[in-house]
From TrEMBL:
<keyword id="KW-0010">Activator</keyword>
<keyword id="KW-0804">Transcription</keyword>
<keyword id="KW-0694">RNA-binding</keyword>
<dbReference type="InterPro" id="IPR036482">
    <property type="entry name" value="Regulatory_HutP_sf"/>
</dbReference>
<dbReference type="GO" id="GO:0003723">
    <property type="term" value="F:RNA binding"/>
</dbReference>
<keyword id="KW-0369">Histidine metabolism</keyword>
<dbReference type="Pfam" id="PF09021">
    <property type="entry name" value="HutP"/>
</dbReference>
<dbReference type="GO" id="GO:0006547">
    <property type="term" value="P:L-histidine metabolic process"/>
</dbReference>
<comment type="subunit">
    <text>Homohexamer.</text>
</comment>
<dbReference type="InterPro" id="IPR015111">
    <property type="entry name" value="Regulatory_HutP"/>
</dbReference>
<protein>
    <recommendedName>
        <fullName>Hut operon positive regulatory protein</fullName>
    </recommendedName>
</protein>
<keyword id="KW-0805">Transcription regulation</keyword>
<comment type="similarity">
    <text>Belongs to the HutP family.</text>
</comment>
<comment type="function">
    <text>Antiterminator that binds to cis-acting regulatory sequences on the mRNA in the presence of histidine, thereby suppressing transcription termination and activating the hut operon for histidine utilization.</text>
</comment>
């Protein structure tokens, strides 16, 4: 990846967008969702008391997980584990601000059997309107 987090911070600040990053590893989809939701709430990307924000984040997260798992959102039940880095971005991607805010969740890392060396790279992206 070209650039540093400081470069992205500067670009996102210029666009008036918000973002946060984090890491999660698990055999449990619920723990992945919880880690992403917790990071987004702690960093002020979404507000827990606003249903539409949490709902949008949930759908973007599940879409990204679906990409990581190639449509089969099971992990531990079928002996798969993931080690992922994630980013959550919230902003107004269209020239016309009336198009509203959108939220994106990007996941990148490894997936495979819970045995070191039997994993491969994976990536997923989910985008949803707020």
């Amino acid at each position: 990846m070209d650039g540093t987090e400081e470069d992205y911070t500067e670009q996102f600040n210029q666009l008036n967008w918000q973002f946060c990053t984090g890491k999660v590893g698990s055999m449990n989809v619920q723990k992945i969702v919880a880690a992403i939701e917790t990071a987004a709430k702690r960093n002020g990307i979404v507000r827990e008391d606003l249903y539409r924000e949490m709902h949008s984040l949930y759908h973007a997260t599940m879409e990204a997980i679906s990409g990581v798992t190639r449509g089969q959102t099971q992990l531990g039940e079928i002996l798969r584990t993931v080690g992922l880095r994630f980013a959550v971005v919230r902003g107004t991607p269209y020239r016309n601000a009336e198009e509203g805010e959108w939220i994106a969740v990007a996941l990148y890392g490894t997936i495979g059997a819970p045995i070191k060396g039997l994993e491969h790279e994976t990536i997923g992206l989910g985008i949803n309107h707020i």
